[in-house]
Design goal:
UDP-N-acetylmuramoyl-L-alanine:D-glutamate ligase; about 425 residues; alpha/beta; 6-stranded mixed beta sheet; 2 domains; 14 helices; Protein-Tyrosine Phosphatase, Chain A
Length: about 425
């Protein structure tokens, strides 16, 4: 990683500045930004707009990162665009990082696909993220927590300032459910840039437990159903709706489109139930706040079932608090290796879990999953968590069982017996 905007800006310039040929919503945040992005993409699709979606990381295939409407970018287009971008960058003497390369590819694909609006998720941080060459119609900041401290700083204040880097002069910003002290930092940056600010809990709110009701910004929407599991998705949905209302003059849409988008949105790997006997839950929680949200929602999904955890994590994460939050709620922990050499040693993880529950080490994630599926009772539960990379590693097992090649070729998500 090398955080600068100059290289990606030069590469885009050499390709005709495709990022200027579509409107954009730019989303940052510690957790929730992917869910909000997916909701916005689904809402604008339901309204009939040609909408792009750029997210990261992918779970199974790189093509998940770049979508136009219902379609992921074609593999042949990835190859062709990669050659074109590499040639353009080489002529200018530019060496792009992987994420910069992917970002240029997404913007070029969106421009050539003639998208009307693109929903773009920040990769890491905000201020120096490659996506921050955009001049979006609105910025969205979902949540602020401690993650990626080695790049963003060790305090909520410093992390908030980095995320606030996506706020552009005179362009509105939508702020999700954040702590009051974080809201003050974000609001101060917005005020410096003369950016109108709308904040969850102050200017808009979502109430109810399903169906939900959105209130605020001169609008009341009732009978809202959210396809994504987890009580935290209520605030994510409210934030997404607020963004669409902020852009209503340029991109008008109906209450029916909002309802349809929220009801049909698909975002794999987040409280994702893939099997019923035993119950199998995949969740990409990979930082302390994400694990806290997972634990809060776990019993609502698993009920009284024993939960057997399959866990792997990156060594650069603050994983001990994750273990301490999760371990009291599981009957056993199977520790595995994820994305070596970045992944933490399963031996260290097993030691941390050992004072709470029985542990075992199975280095290969797929083998570990299959062992659990063979040994866990039909009336028990398996939870896969700790890293999106781990979720991505085991997901192909379930795709093969359904005869599918990718995550989005079939939107149905009914658990298999």
């Amino acid at each position: 990683m090398d955080f600068k905007l100059e290289r990606v800006a030069l590469a885009l310039q050499s390709l005709g500045n495709p990022q200027r040929r579509f409107a954009a919503i730019h989303i940052a945040g510690t957790n929730g930004k992917g869910s909000v992005a997916a909701m916005l993409h689904a809402i604008y699709r339901a309204a009939g707009y040609r909408v792009g979606l750029y997210t990261s990381p992918h779970l199974v295939s790189f093509t998940e990162r770049i979508r136009v409407g219902a379609e992921m970018i074609d593999e042949d287009d990835v190859v062709a665009l990669a050659r074109e971008i590499r040639t353009a960058a080489t002529v200018r003497g530019i060496e792009l990082t992987f994420f910069e390369f992917a970002t240029v590819m997404a913007f070029l694909h969106f421009a050539r696909s003639r998208v009307e609006i693109a929903v773009v998720e920040v990769g890491l941080g905000g201020r120096l993220d490659a996506t921050n060459v955009l001049l979006p119609e609105t910025a969205v900041i979902t949540t602020i927590g401690l993650d990626h401290q080695e790049f963003l700083g060790n305090t909520l204040d410093s992390i908030a300032r980095e995320k606030a880097g996506i706020i552009k002069s005179g362009r509105p910003v939508i702020i999700g459910n954040v702590l009051p002290e974080v809201a003050e930092v974000l609001s101060a940056v917005a005020a410096e840039r003369d950016s109108p600010t709308l904040r969850c809990g102050r200017d808009f709110v979502m109430t109810g437990s399903g169906p939900f009701q959105f209130s605020g910004m001169g609008c009341d929407l009732t009978d809202l159903q959210i396809a994504l599991r987890g009580d935290y998705q209520r605030d994510n949905a409210a934030t997404a709706i607020a963004a669409t209302l902020q852009l209503q003059n340029r991109f008008p849409l109906s209450a029916a489109a909002i309802r349809s988008g929220l009801q049909d949105v698909r975002w794999p790997g987040r409280l994702d139930v893939l099997r019923s006997r035993p119950l199998v839950i995949l969740d990409g929680a990979h930082n302390p706040d994400g694990v806290a949200a997972l634990v809060q929602n776990l019993r609502g999904l698993a009920g009284k079932r024993n939960v057997h955890l399959l866990f792997g994590v990156m060594r650069d994460k603050s994983w001990l608090p994750m273990v301490q939050a999760m371990a009291p709620h599981v009957a056993s922990a199977t520790l595995t290796t994820v994305l070596p050499p970045r992944g933490e040693s399963p031996e260290l993880l097993a030691h941390a879990f050992s004072s709470y529950c029985p542990t075992r080490i199975i280095s290969d994630p797929i083998v570990a999953l299959e062992v659990l599926l063979d040994s866990v009772g039909a009336d028990e539960s398996i939870l896969v968590a700790g890293s999106l990379f781990l979720v991505g590693a085991v997901y192909p097992h379930f795709l093969r069982g359904r005869g599918r090649q990718d995550l989005f070729s079939d939107i149905t998500a009914a658990p298999q017996p």
